[in-house]
Design a protein that fits this description.
By secondary structure, the chain is of the alpha+beta class. The protein folds into 2 domains: 147 residues, 3-Layer(aba) Sandwich (Rossmann fold); 99 residues, Bacterial fluorinating enzyme like (Elongation Factor Tu (Ef-tu), domain 3, Beta Barrel). Helix content is 20%, strand content 30%. Strands 7, 8, 9, 10, 11, 12, 13, 14 and 15 form a 9-stranded mixed beta sheet that branches. It has a 6-stranded mixed beta sheet with strand order 2-1-3-5-4-6, with helices on both faces. Helix 1 runs parallel beside helix 4 and helix 2 runs parallel beside helix 3. It is elongated, with a radius of gyration of 21 Å. The chain starts with a strand and ends with a strand.
Length: 269
């Protein structure tokens, strides 16, 4: 059976009609589609934030889902539009790395094509709204069962985002902040697997961010006193620094790129 679930991720917000227009285009082509909004509050033109959002969500959808993502500072330029299939799911969006983290996570064979066929786009193609004219029609036709190969020629070199990986140096794990969520939590490149590397070593685990110690990773946000920072492994499997009932970004003055260090310290709790 053709897929009917289409997710949408954009930086369009909800004040303007752009998201609704894209949904209208989709439903005009594939009336049975079930549309799921992942987020339309991605920071404007922030491709990495959009990529992290899509990566966090895509794996929880069933096989056959089509993920439509538009965070596109290069709209109207020579950047390509892509349709990619990986891990039983499909991904539609601009070729700027937005899709790459979710595609890598999906695993398995990857097939990618450039969206060039005039049969699966609106005409004329707007210079400023490819979400409406290029990506929404492609997602709808793909969900309606059109084979991937009909959309255009194969692509072997999609743009890929490379997240800074944490690294082990002299008994410490060094990473950095890669994102900030709506609550002001600082999401880092340190993963649960990185922390597992400390198992069996003596001393208490201590997390530092931008030189400020926030203690050992906690089991729950509620374990920190109100207004104080703490660390926790979040739902995406990455270490986060938070402030209970507050914002770590505001309290610590940190954002993307801030250094993170995890180490064992003897005699500290």
């Amino acid at each position: 059976m053709p897929a009917s679930i289409i997710t949408l991720t954009t930086d369009f917000g909800t004040r303007d009609p752009w998201v609704g227009i894209m949904k209208g285009v989709i439903l005009g082509i594939c009336p049975g589609a079930e549309l799921v909004d992942l987020s339309h509050d991605i920071a404007p033109q922030d491709v990495l934030e959009g990529a992290l959002c899509l990566e966090a969500a895509a794996r929880f959808f069933p096989a056959g889902t089509v993920h439509l993502a538009v965070v596109d500072p290069g709209v109207g330029s020579s950047r390509r539009g892509l349709a990619i299939q990986a891990g039983g799911q499909s991904f539609i969006g601009p070729d700027n790395g937005l899709l790459s983290l979710a595609v890598d996570q999906a695993g398995g064979p990857v097939e990618a094509v450039e969206l060039t066929s005039p049969a699966y786009r609106r005409a004329p193609l707007s210079r400023t709204f490819h979400g409406r004219d290029l990506f929404a029609p492609a997602a709808a036709h793909l969900a309606a069962g059109v084979p991937l190969g009909r959309f255009g020629s194969s692509v072997n070199d999609p743009v890929t985002l490379f997240l800074p990986a944490a690294r082990r140096v002299e008994g410490c794990v060094l990473g950095e902040v890669i994102g900030v969520d709506r609550f002001g939590n600082l999401v880092t490149s340190v993963t649960e697997a990185d922390l597992a590397g400390f198992e069996g070593e003596p001393g208490a685990l201590v997390v530092e961010i931008a030189g400020v110690a926030v203690g050992a990773p906690m089991a729950a946000y509620a374990d920190a006193p109100p207004g104080f920072p703490g660390a926790i492994v979040g739902s995406t499997g990455r270490l986060e620094v938070f402030v209970r009932e507050g914002s770590a970004r505001s309290l610590l003055g940190c954002g993307r790129g801030a250094p993170v260090l995890v180490k064992r310290v003897r005699g500290e709790a």
